[in-house]
Amino acid sequence: MPEGTCDCHFHVFAPHAPLASPRSYTPRIETLDGWLQLADAIGMAHGVLVQPSVYGFDNRVLLTALAAHAERLRGIVVIPPETDGDELMRLHRLGVRGVRINLRNKTGLPLEAVPTLASAIQHLGWQLQFQVGPDGVEAVTRTVLQYGITAVIDHAAFLPVADPAVEPGITALQRLLDTGSAYVKLSAPYRLAAAPDYPGFGALVARLAASHPERLLWGSDWPHTELFEAMPDDADLVSAMLDWLPDEPMRRKVFVTNPESLYWSTE
């Protein structure tokens, strides 16, 4: 992987941390030490921790990890929209750089939280990260245009890339990227297509790399939540992504310079 690679999407869990109820899944406990071992093994210099839905508004596991590796990590939290400015500044100093809106899991923040959050976080240079399906992309586009906030889409909006009818979804995603204020994560191909070859995902990567190279990010999606019975091999996933991005300058954009610009440009 390119020197300076950033994993823009992973989660950590901790023994005995209280879980939200109701929730979409019960996690297998995988701690930051596990991600650090993976990062060192495959060459990831930095990472962006994403608050998992199962912890709701309780960001303590994530914030503990950020505090332990302040230079190496950034974080995306889930917070009440009415969180006050002092708390936002505390989170910013710890390395938080955005808030996650999650329409796919129980306890996730809804789109209705966007107006209040966008107003509160803009001066910090934070982003709103959206976990939405294909039917949510146009709403994110409207959000970007209306509130002037930077948006990041998880897992290529879960586009069904093997379906011939996926074309309108790809076009909608490209229109979002056309705003110049959005990024999309080329991550978790197993959530979009069937293993082991993930038909259609490589074509999506090539198409977005040709049209919007400055707007792409990569994430490991470690530890692959909800897939505990059929865990993908991380080395195979990295190898596939490198095959889908064979051009070295393009790899550097996706793995290094794009995340540097998004997550490390504000102090």
Spell out the blueprint of helices and strands.
Layout: E1 6-10, H1 32-42, E2 46-50, H2 60-68, E3 73-77, H3 85-94, E4 96-102, H4 114-121, E5 127-131, H5 137-147, E6 150-153, H6 167-178, E7 182-187, H7 201-211, E8 216-219, H8 234-244, H9 248-263
Parallel strand pairs: 1-2, 2-3, 3-4, 4-5, 5-6, 6-7, 7-8
Helix pairs in contact: 5-6, 7-8
Protein name: GntR family transcriptional regulator
Domain Amidohydrolase-related: 6-263
Pfam families: Amidohydro_2
Task: Pick out its properties.
single chain, 8-stranded parallel β-sheet, TIM Barrel, 267 residues, 8 strands
Question: What is the compact description of this entry?
Answer:
The chain is built from nine helices and eight strands. With 267 residues, it is of the alpha/beta class. It has one domain: Metal-dependent hydrolases (TIM Barrel, Alpha-Beta Barrel).
Give a verbal description of the structure.
This protein starts with 5 loop residues before the first strand and ends with a helix. The chain has nine helices and eight strands. The protein is globular. The mean pLDDT is 96. Helices cover 37% and strands 15% of the residues. With 267 residues, it is α/β, with parallel strands linked by helices. The chain has helices spanning 32-42, 60-68, 85-94, 114-121, 137-147, 167-178, 201-211, 234-244, 248-263, and strands at 6-10, 46-50, 73-77, 96-102, 127-131, 150-153, 182-187, 216-219. It has an eight-stranded parallel sheet with strand order 1-2-3-4-5-6-7-8. The chain has a single domain (6-263), classed as Metal-dependent hydrolases (TIM Barrel), CATH 3.20.20. Helix 5 (137-147) packs parallel to helix 6 and helix 7 crosses helix 8 (234-244). Pfam families: Amidohydro_2. It comes from Devosia nitrariae. Residues 6-263 form the Amidohydrolase-related domain. InterPro entries: Amidohydro-rel (IPR006680), Aro_Compnd_Degr_Hydrolases (IPR052358), Metal_Hydrolase (IPR032466). This is GntR family transcriptional regulator.
